[in-house]
Design goal:
Order of helices and strands: EHEHEEHHHHHHH
Radius of gyration: 17 Å
Largest sheet: 4 strands, mixed
Helix content: 40-55%
Strand content: 5-15%
Number of domains: 2
CATH topology of the largest domain: Glutathione S-transferase Yfyf (Class Pi), Chain A, domain 2
Shape: globular
Number of helices: 9
Strand order of the largest sheet: 2-1-3-4
Structural class: alpha+beta
């Protein structure tokens, strides 16, 4: 199993967490977005969008981190990323979707590059943009976590799962974009709990072979 990814990519980060939680062996293939390596014809032949992550196993090529993570959950169901109860599974998926659908797409690299180069925004404008959408999502997530009686040390219950992988990767991005996390004690508590687990430590951007 090979995973084409970039150390600072939030989607790559969440996938690395899941791979580690599953205890899987995989090879790290760096795609340096800073050097525009994702536009290389050889990589775009694998992933026409030129996005990371991309997972390769034999002749199978998988793109889009939500699809890859769901595939991993179905193929390697132990340990599970989702609870048994259908209602609980929907709640956990919704927490993940706040990040995956509503926060991350608005502050990923291609959007920020458009702000910088096409709209001529300076770094203060870029940080303000990122902060706006991260805060909007985190405000909702904080309320959802606070109101959930099944919240434990993690987003749901006492074991790390799907929502934690999404959340921790987004918290990492929030820090990079200088977002004040003080208003989000429940989010910070989950992040701190996860920071004590090797699956999360090993997946952190600073611990990847292409990190500088």
């Amino acid at each position: 199993m090979k995973v084409y990814n970039y150390f600072r990519s939030g989607t790559s980060h969440r996938l690395r967490i899941v791979l580690n939680l599953k205890g899987l062996d995989w090879d790290y293939v760096a795609v340096d977005l800073r050097a525009e390596a994702h536009f290389d014809p050889a990589f775009k032949a694998l992933n026409p969008q030129g996005f990371v992550p991309t997972l390769i196993e034999g002749d199978l090529v998988l793109t889009q981190s939500p699809a890859i993570i769901e595939w991993l959950e179905e193929r390697y169901p132990t340990p599970p990323l989702l609870p048994v109860d259908a209602n609980d599974r929907a709640r956990v998926r919704a927490l993940a979707a706040v990040v995956g659908c509503d926060i991350h797409p608005l502050n990923n690299r291609r959007v920020l590059e458009y702000l910088r180069h096409q709209l001529h925004g300076d770094e203060a404008a870029v940080l303000a943009w990122c902060g706006c959408w991260i805060n909007a999502g985190f405000e909702a997530l904080e309320q959802l976590l606070a109101a959930d009686p099944k919240r434990g040390s993690f987003c749901f219950g006492g074991q790390p799962g799907l929502a934690d992988a999404y959340l921790v990767a987004q918290v990492e991005s929030a820090r990079r974009f200088q977002v004040d996390l003080a208003p989000y004690p429940f989010i910070c508590a989950v992040d701190q709990t996860c920071a004590n687990l090797q699956a999360f430590v090993q997946a952190a951007p600073k611990n990847q072979p292409d990190a500088l």
